[in-house]
């Protein structure tokens, strides 16, 4: 989600940018300054689509964590919580528009404390109606434990089907970029006049050239050595050297995720 300097009110209107109906065949885009990757390299990447008049539109990224469970950002599913049938996930494809396997979403657990103003607790668990078949191109990633230590400067990979620049050009293929974890204090200082970097957030940036997640990447994975440490959440623009990308800090939500996975097993 894009955050505009000084005007938090704009959050609400700007969040509409990612919910404007886009036809399924629209030419959208990707990560900024990333490289194309095959889905077998990032088999936990999923695309979240939403129902529109003309079919299904790309909404956000999502991350496979069990054979029925995917994580995404709460801001991606906020308006669908009571209507999961308006969402579906597509897995196992490097192309945003073709291939892969589609699964209906039957249940959405959005974090109870998610705030659309502060973007705190920007996490949701999706349950598919059918069990997903795992393969070389469809596989879960493990989630960071509650006590996972993520040192400043750690290398991570962010991926998705989002835009290649802020309001920019497009691609149909999965992209990934190497970024490094930015310290909480440096990130808080960068965003001082704009927003609060909470405990449940973690920042990352890539340099030379600047690399970052962008619009449409939200809900997608930030991974360190095959462990999911972040979920694409928001930022001021994309690949703006003054503003790191902001992610939901997965380790902080490990107990919440476990609890919702248990609910999914027991009910959904
Ligand atoms: C978005 O609108 C978005 N640069 C996601 C991530 C970032 C900016 C915008 C971070 O989905």
TrEMBL record:
Lineage top rank: taxon: Eukaryota
Signal peptide: 1-19
Peptidase S1 domain boundaries: 31-262
Keyword Hydrolase set for record: yes
BP-aspect Gene Ontology terms: proteolysis
Alphabetized UniProt keyword annotations: Disulfide bond, Hydrolase, Protease, Serine protease, Signal, Zymogen
Pfam families to which the protein is assigned, alphabetical: Trypsin
A single GO molecular function term of this UniProt record: serine-type endopeptidase activity
InterPro entries noted in UniProt: Peptidase_S1, Peptidase_S1_PA, Peptidase_S1_PA_chymotrypsin, Peptidase_S1A, Trypsin_dom, TRYPSIN_HIS, TRYPSIN_SER
Transmembrane segments: none
UniProt keyword Disulfide bond present: yes
Gene3D superfamilies: Trypsin-like serine proteases
Family listed: Belongs to the peptidase S1 family.
Protein name, UniProt field: Peptidase S1 domain-containing protein
Species whose genome carries this gene: Spodoptera exigua (Beet armyworm)
High-level lineage: Eukaryota, Metazoa, Ecdysozoa, Arthropoda, Hexapoda
